[in-house]
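Consortium newsletter contribution from the modelling node. Members have asked for a concrete example of what our holo predictions look like. Here is one, prepared for the NG6 complex that several groups have been discussing at recent meetings.
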Amino acid sequence: MRLLSTLFYFVTLTFIGQAANVEKPNIIVIMADDLGYGDVGCYGAKPKNLKTPNIDRLAANGLRFTSGYCSASTCTPTRFSFLTGKYAFRQKNTGIAPPNGPAIIQPGVETLPSLLKRAGYATAVIGKWHLGLGGPNGPDWNGELNPGPREIGFDYNYLLPTTNDRVPQVYVENHRVKNLDPKDPLWVGRKKPSADHPTGLTHRDTLKMDWSHGHNSTIHNGISRIGFYTGGHAARFRDEDLADEWVNQSNKWIEANKGNPFFLFFSSHDLHVPRMPHERFHGASGLGFRGDAIVQLDWCVGELVKTLDRLQLSDSTLILFCSDNGPVGDDGYKDGALEKVGDHQPGGPFSGGKYSVLEGGTRTPFITYWPGRIAKGVSSEMVCTIDLAASFAALTGVDLPKDACPDSFNVIGALLGKEGAKGRRDLVQQDNGKRGNYGFRAGKWKLQRHDGKRRHNVHVNTQLQFHPAPHYSLFDLSKDIRETKNIAKEHPKVLERMKQRLQKIVDAGRSRP
Ligand code: NG6
Ligand code: CA
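And here is the predicted structure:
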């Protein structure tokens, strides 16, 4: 009897304990595109006119991470991992998705939104998708775009299907291309549809922004793109209006869902190429369109915060601000990014950027903000977008099945800035995933591994340059943040240990115990 009552006591305690810890704030993840560690004021951006007051306000009143990461240095693998909690190198075809790419995350796979749905959340993604749409044959642009976000846990989606430098320039609302006129069907393909189809090669002198590499196929809105398309004219948008549209649609959705906890993935296209912000931001930053797109991104953040204030949701909403990969200067268009960068350092103190396994590829701005609940400060705990699935599941009291989200760690304590709470011990960083390049950080140590081509992507003044790299190299980030001095020979034991730890994570198929 005594034993039974003791047992009862403990079970009750545990239950109450869990119930007391469960919180269900609204959650908004604002993911910027190609935003570097040094690109915003609160992370040290200096240019006089590159002002980011709204992002800086989140940091000043929330928690700013100095070791906040995305998991890859391109878009598709980071977004795959963010939603599935699984390292992208574990699954084929998770590299940069093409215009006609099929859905990469299969229905039935546990995802951040599917977990939050179980906690009673309304869920939406508004903005850039870039994780494929449709079955194995790819999207049926004139029919049902299924599977898509709604098959993996989102109640609602309002999307740019891939990136805006890829065709087509149309919105996808739930399963359909919005405003598509059946009499003017949309065709998307890899080959020129007719001999007289105007392209960035044949009509280069008509472009309002010239291309520098790739991006010379179909022209829309005076900008040539990757891939070809015809038709769907009534559905097409202007690049300049994208940011306004994401904000308007988000405001509408938040307002309609304010009655229950909601999760919004606000997936900005800023500052991905083609950088073509709204006319009112042209010239705002003094750094050309790349900087102007940062100012536009900051404006979006401000608008979302205003909406929360207006609806009196600020105190019950956790905002997480992050990026999907590090910065890049010229990414295919002559938009002045290189010429106008001056002494601005998009990657902050780090080397590398987009496409790179150096720190600048994945260490990015990362801010959590929840008034009254997250104390102001700066955290050096290591956290990653891949951890949000396990962390938000823990916060909202949802059981994470053992085989789900296999690389996602519950770091909710660190995200909320709880005293003594730890981030992750180590993190695998990858590039686009095709060449088997890894970065592996554990504490102050950083291992770089290049399986295939023995070279890595170093950004010199935001310009992409390839430098030769050995199969393995080792760096001490506490002394050499720019990863310039390979000390593998001086520390053979550390090198061996790091190599083995990385290999174990790769082989085990999972890294969460
Ligand atoms: C590259 C494109 C680049 C960009 C990138 C994807 C060329 C030459 N380069 O292939 O412009 O679109 O893919 O960027 O076409 S990401 O941020 O979505 O990963
Ligand atoms: Ca990106």
